[in-house]
Every structure is written in structure tokens, then in C-alpha cells.
Design brief:
Elements lengths: L11 H6 L23 E5 L5 H14 L5 E3 L9 H13 L3 E5 L25 H17 L4 E4 L2 H12 L8 E4 L8 H10 L3 E3 L6 H8 L6 E6 L13 H8 L2 E5 L15 H24 L27
Parallel strand pairs: 1-2, 1-8, 2-3, 3-4, 4-5, 5-6, 6-7, 7-8
């Protein structure tokens, strides 16, 4: 872990010299939790949709000196061949980076029309038994090919994969990550997802700093948050808040997304040039965030590279025979 630091507030000294008060930091707002290695933050590059995009991200992160703890993909296991998954697993393993792949069918791509209504219907949830089974199939296939982190967007899928993990159908070290498109927005729901088996939970990027503190009063489960959110998640850019996001939300994965860019899910060769360009720019956005943290003296507390486990978390008991 990098040494903890005492950050300065953005613009604080200059504002004080012209008589403009800076709000006091409330110690009670700070998270009391860390990753098991003692770190308070890790990094994630999302939307890395295949081996070619991964190669771009790895090359650019080396060139820009951007440390990467996790790579995640959004189109799904079913959109990749076995050889593509194996190549991604091997490339990440060489650099001790966790690879996270999305599981199975989801409602937004299903035949149900309610997701296209004003209400959004059931969103990304797995509709019916067959969609649930498809997610299970993806999880088993990815695990057999060496993937150790699975991304889910449905509470039933999450609970099912957690029970499979307990039963030994998935390796015990498999981690389950909750999608940003179904992320919890209050402390009670955050705690429920933790107990359903989530090891890492995306929260919407429009949660306030106070919301993060509220969540941390009830749960120590790692949080994932887009510092810059894609347009379909609001397009929020919160770079100047990163130090405070860490202080309030630790343990937290800083996700370097990209606004003002068209979507790429589900990915295919027709989107190749756009996908590679946006992959490269996500790494650059990460460099901007890390530089900002360093300028404010807030870059301490990063988990060691290669860290991936979430620590001891609370779970619902699994009834016998289920």
C-alpha cells in the first residue's frame, strides 16, 4: 500500500488569501473501512471489450504510467470466443490484473418491450428461467477458462452464483461484481446486495458525498464508482471530488469511464476503431485523475498492484437444500 496522505482542499490556500471561507472537513464523514491490504482505493478500466482493446489499454497504461488493478468488460461472456477469453485471461495474469467479464443475457437485449418504455421496465434483469440459466452457463464457462471475477446485473443471478460458489461449482476465490446499471442508491439496498453475495458494488455516479458516508455506516463492501460516467449513466465528471470520494467511500475502485462517446455494447468489429480510441482515452482520463490526486497530496493509500480480494463480508445464510 502507498503511504496514506493528508490532502489539501482544491483551491483552499488561494481562497483563504482572498477571504473566501472553505468548508471544514468533518472527520465523522470519513469511511472507517479499507481493503484487506490496508489500501483505500484501487483502479479499474471499464468497457474493455476484447483482446485487441485490452492490448491497447495495457500498452497505454504502461506508456502513461497508470496503475491498473482491474479490467472489466460489458458486452458479456457470450460475445467472446474461448480463444478470446483465454487470451484476455493470460494477458491480465501476466500483469497481475483482475479480469472481470459480464454474465449472460440481460433484459435490455431481450424480446421484452418494457425496457424501452419511459419507466425502463425491469432494466438489465435476467427475464425468465432461460436468461438466468444463460448467466449461469456464462459463469461456468468463464470460470473454466480462468476468469476469476464475474459481473452481474440481477439480484437473482447474484444470489445464484453466490450459492454456486459456496457449493464449489465456482472456485471459492471467484469475486462477484454488481453492475452500475443496477447499483444500489441507499444504505439498506447496498447492505442487501452485500449479503446476497456481492464482493464489489457499482453505485450510480450521481450519489452525493453524504450518500457515500451513509452507505459506509452500514457496509464495508468495496464500492465501484465512475469518476467519469458514460453518457447512458449520466455523463458526470467528478474529477475534483476524487480525494473526497476516497475519504468517504473507501474501500473504493476508481473507474475511468468516458462521457461524450457513443455506446459500444454489444461490441463487434463494426465498432472497432471507436472502441480502440475510447479504450485509449479511458486510460488518459485515469492519468488525469491520478495527476490531480498527486497535486492535492491525496495520492496515498492505493492498494498494492495485484490486490483483488474484498475482505470478510456479511452474507445471508443459505438454507439447507437450497
Amino acid at each position: 500500500m502507498t503511504a496514506p496522505s493528508s490532502p489539501r482542499r482544491p483551491g483552499g490556500d488561494a481562497l483563504a488569501r482572498v477571504g473566501h471561507p472553505t468548508p471544514a472537513v468533518e472527520p465523522a464523514d470519513a469511511s472507517a473501512h479499507t481493503f484487506p491490504d490496508g489500501g483505500t482505493w484501487r483502479t479499474e478500466i471499464p468497457s474493455v471489450e476484447g483482446p485487441e482493446a485490452l492490448s491497447v489499454v495495457l500498452a497505454e497504461s504502461a506508456r502513461q504510467d497508470v496503475p491498473v488493478h482491474r479490467i472489466s468488460q460489458g458486452s458479456g461472456v457470450w460475445m467472446l470466443t474461448d480463444s478470446e477469453i483465454t487470451e484476455m485471461v493470460e494477458s491480465c495474469a501476466e500483469r497481475d490484473i483482475e479480469l472481470c467479464l459480464f454474465t449472460g443475457p440481460r433484459g435490455t437485449w431481450d424480446i421484452g418491450g418494457s425496457t424501452r418504455t419511459g419507466s425502463g421496465g425491469a432494466g438489465l434483469r435476467a427475464r425468465g428461467h432461460d436468461a438466468l440459466a444463460g448467466c449461469v452457463e456464462d459463469a461456468l464457462r468463464a470460470s473454466e477458462l480462468g476468469v476469476t471475477c464475474l459481473l452481474v446485473a440481477d439480484e437473482g443471478v447474484l444470489w445464484t452464483l453466490h450459492r454456486m460458489r459456496l457449493a464449489g461449482l465456482l472456485p471459492a476465490g471467484t469475486t462477484l461484481k454488481l453492475s452500475a446499471l443496477s447499483g444500489p442508491v441507499n444504505p439498506a439496498s447496498y447492505a442487501v446486495y452485500e449479503q446476497l453475495g456481492a464482493d464489489s458494488l457499482n453505485v450510480p455516479s450521481d450519489l452525493t458525498l453524504d450518500h457515500l458516508s451513509e452507505i459506509r455506516r452500514v457496509s464495508a463492501a468495496p464500492m465501484d464508482m465512475y469518476v467519469e460516467a458514460p453518457d447512458d449513466l449520466g455523463g458526470y465528471v467528478r474529477m475534483y471530488e476524487v480525494a473526497e470520494l476516497i475519504r468517504r467511500g473507501a474501500p473504493i475502485y476508481l473507474k475511468f469511464g468516458l462521457s461524450n462517446a457513443s455506446g459500444i455494447y454489444p461490441y463487434g468489429a463494426q465498432l472497432r476503431d471507436h472502441t480502440l480510441a475510447t479504450a485509449r482515452e479511458r486510460v488518459r482520463r485515469g492519468r488525469l485523475v491520478l495527476d490531480l490526486l498527486a497535486r492535492h497530496g491525496a495520492d496515498g493509500g492505493m492498494s498494492p498492484l495485484g490486490s483483488r480480494l474484498p475482505g470478510d463480508l456479511r452474507r445471508f445464510p443459505v438454507p439447507e437444500g437450497n
